Amino acid sequence: MKTVCWSVDKIEDNKINYPQLEEAARFLQNNEVVAFPTETVYGLGANAQSDEAVSKIFAAKGRPADNPLIVHISDVNQLRELSTVIPEKSEQLMNAFWPGPLTLIFQKKAGAVSELVTAGLDTIAVRMPDHPVALALISAADLPIAAPSANRSGKPSPTTANHVRTDLDGSIAGIVDGGPTGVGLESTVVDCTGKTPVILRPGGVSKEEIEAVIGKVEIDPALMRLEEKPKSPGMKYKHYAPSAPLFLADGDQKWIQDLVNEKRNEGFKVGVLTSTESYPQYDADIVLDCGSRFDLTTVAHNLFHTLRSFDEEQVDIIFSEVFPEEGVGAAIMNRLDKAAGHKWLRQNI
Ligand code: TXA
Ligand code: MG
C-alpha cells in the first residue's frame, strides 16, 4: 500500500491548512487508518465505530487484540455518545486538563464503538488531545477516533512523522505530518469509575497536578510490582524497547563510566543515555543527551527520539542514567523501566 503524506503547516495566525486535513478526514470516513500528531505522541487513527477500520489499526501495529484503544474526541459533547455516566471527579479533571495529555476511563455506552476498541471491557478510555491538527482532523471527520500510538507494537512511541514512517510506511493509508510533538510521552490514564481514582499509566499530567484538583489518587500497584496484573491491559506488554539491551544504571558517573569501559573492552559498541548536565563527562561509542535534570519536561520531550537514535547507531548495549521520579519524572522512569525490560544495575546494594 502506498502511504500518502500530508504536510500540514501551521500558518501564521495558527490556523491549519484545511484542504489537506479534509482529505485525511475523508480517508478516516472511508475506514482507512491515518497517523496524526497530538501533543503527546503521534496517534494511529481510525473510525472507532467501524470493525473494519479498527482491525486495520491492530494489523498495522501488530498489536495484541486484548489491548484496548483510546477514543479521541474534539468536543466534550462527543463524550455523551460514548458514556452516560460521568463521575464528578472525572468532570473536574476534564475541566482542568482537557484538551490535554489526560485519558479518562468511563463506563461504556453499549454499542457506542466497535467492540474491538475496548477489547471486551465494559469501560472505554477517552481523551481530547491538545493539538490544533488533531482537533481539526477529528472534527472534520466528525467521528470518534480510536488511536493508539503510531508505532509498531513494542517500539518507542513516535514523536515525529519520520518515526511513524520508519515503523509503518506502506502498511497504513496516510500520515499527517504536523512536525514534532510537544510533551513527548503519552497521556496519563486515570480511572475514576471506582471509589478512589487510580492512575493506570503515568504520563503527561503528573500525579501531583491531578491531586491538586481531585485530592488523593492511587497508583495501580501493577505499575510498581511486577507480579500484579495491570488494570490497563497495555501496561503488561514489552514496550518502548530499542533493539539493543538497555540497562538502567543507578549510580554516579564514574561508576557508569566503569560499566561502559568494561563492555567496550569486551569489544561491544556501547551507548549511554545521559542528562545535559553529565553528557560531557562520558566516553563511549555513542553518548546521547536526553535533556536537563533541572527541567524534566525536556527529558520527556526527547526520550523516545533518543531511544530510537540508538537503533540508528546500531549499538550493542545501552546504559541509561536514572531520573528523579517527581512530576513528569514518574512517567519518564516508567517508560525507561519498560524500555529496559526492568533491567537495573545499582551501585549501592
Ligand atoms: O498520549 C496518548 O495517550 C497516545 C496518543 C496517540 O493519544 N495514545 C496512546 O495509546 O498512548 P496506546 O494505545 O499506546 O495506549 C493506550 C493505553 C494502553 O495502556 C491501554 O491498555 C489503556 O490505554 N486503555 C485503553 N482502554 C482502556 C480501558 N478501558 N481500561 C483501562 N485501560 C485502557
Ligand atoms: Mg503505545
Task: Outline the structure in words.
The structure is a single chain. The protein is an alpha/beta fold and 349 residues long. Helices cover 31% and strands 18% of the residues. It is built from eleven helices and 16 strands. It has helices at 18-29, 51-61, 79-82, 88-97, 115-118, 132-141, 161-168, 207-214, 253-265, 296-313, 329-339, and strands spanning 4-7, 34-36, 43-47, 70-72, 102-107, 123-127, 145-146, 174-177, 188-191, 198-201, 218-219, 246-250, 270-274, 286-289, 317-320, 344-346. The strands form two sheets. An eleven-stranded mixed beta sheet has the order 1-8-2-3-7-4-6-5-9-10-11, with helices on both faces. The protein has a five-stranded parallel beta sheet with strand order 14-13-15-12-16, sandwiched between helices. Helix 1 packs across helix 6 (132-141). The protein is globular, with a radius of gyration of 20 Å. Residues 38, 40-41, 43, 67-70, 101, 103, 105, 118, 121, 123-125, 127, 129, 147-149, 186-187, 189, 200-201, 231-235 line the site of threonylcarbamoyladenylate (TXA).
DSSP helical segment count? 11
Q: End-to-end distance, in Å?
A: 53 Å
Mean pLDDT: 94
Which parts are unreliable, with pLDDT below 50 for 5 consecutive residues or more? none
Distinct compounds present? threonylcarbamoyladenylate, magnesium ion
What is the overall silhouette?
globular
Helix content: 25-40%
Major β-sheet annotation:
11 strands, mixed
- Strand coverage percent: 15-25%
Radius of gyration: 20 Å
SSE ordering: EHEEHEHHEHEHEHEEEHEEHEEHEHE
Tell how many strands the DSSP assignment holds.
Answer: 16
> Order of strands in the sheet with the most strands?
1-8-2-3-7-4-6-5-9-10-11
Structural class: alpha/beta
